[in-house]
Each structure stands twice: as C-alpha cells, then as structure tokens.
Fold this protein.
Amino acid sequence: MIDVDASVIDDLVVANHILFDQGIVDAFGHVSVRHPKRPDRFLLARNMAPGIVTADDIIEFELDGTAVSDNRRPYLERFIHGEIFRARPDVMAVVHSHSPSIVPFSVVPTAPFRAVCHMCGFLGTGVSRFEIRECGSDTTDLLIRSQELGSALARSLGSSNAVLMRGHGSTVVAPDLQRAVYRAVYAEVNAKLLLDAMRLGPVTYLTDAEAESCMISTEGQVHRPWEMWKAAAIAARSTP
C-alpha cells in the first residue's frame, strides 16, 4: 500500500483481534479505517474471520468498494464502510458487528436504545435505525451487498454515532480507530445493562447533556481500555 504507515495496519489488525476477544465479532463482522493520506480510500481485511486477521490480509479499497490492485475475495458488506466514509468526512473508522445483546433492540422499534451508563455516553438519547425493507424488499438476506444499500444505511446513520440494523446487528462510527473499537464494545455493554434494567422497572436514561459530558470524559481516556485489550489480544495469540 502506498503512503500507509505500518503502525496503521498494525492497529487495524489489533482492532480485529480486540473485537473478537471482547465478543463483539465472531467469525463474522468487520472493522475498517480511512486511509490516512487518501480520504477517498479505506483499509479493510479480506473476507475472513476477524480473530485471525494479519497485516498481510489488509486490502485498500476505493469508496465504491473496489479493491485497489488486489483480487482476493472481499467482504460482501464492504459497502457499509465505503458509503459511510463517503457520507461522513468526520468518520475515520467503522465497526460492523452482530453483537448479540444489541440485536433484540434492532427488532423492537419501540424499545429505546439510549445511554444508561456513563461509559456509553456516545449513544446519547437514542441511535439511528435502518430498515432494509424501505430501500430493498422483504426478500433480502438483510446484508448490505451494494452501494445503493450502503448509501441507504449511511443516510439512516445520519449524524449519529451508531445505527441499529433490523434483524442484523449494528454499525458504529468514530473519529479514530481506538474510539470505534471502544464504542463497539460499550454499545454491547449498554445493551446488556439496559436489558437488565428494563426487567426491574422504568429506566432513567442519561440526558443529552449528561451523555455529551460523559462521552468527552471517558473517550478522553480511550487509550486505557485500548492498551489493556491490546495486551490481552497479543497474549492470547502468543500462548502455546
């Protein structure tokens, strides 16, 4: 790849491993980062399980999902990443996952998915929702297989930090890779906490102002969980 520092590739590999180790992705799901010197391109692994991604597996893509000088099989849903990067110049990293506690909120439109914990302030007082039937049909496999569907997803995301995808999972975005990983992990944490809280009674959610303050405070220290998760991921892969 031209003009891509090795540290960028290394961090993207680590991000894949962290997301697997934290239970956000399994054999499916993916994470991308915008090209540091070419905003019209992004970096994403080839079609494979995130937990075993290496530096050699990273491919450079145009925003339309076309691989740059690489004929290896890409992810079917690379259009999620390209179209969000196209629509949101502020976004530098994207995580798409099927983390299990979030999926129930994607299929119950009346269930608010809002921040209930100070660690999850980036969710604010609600996230976006994507219904593929509104732009596709009721016979799709729910996957974002085209630029058109990717563009529709990006429109649903709007200016939010996350979007729920009905019967599918979620996509989170951030201004850098470490925060994208953090948000993907803590979106799942928020879902678990919210599911528990709803069983107990009426939920007190964070206000807009609280969510904003919490996001600034916690994400200003995102290096703390990143370094911990990174060390754990490296240790897991170096154990005989």
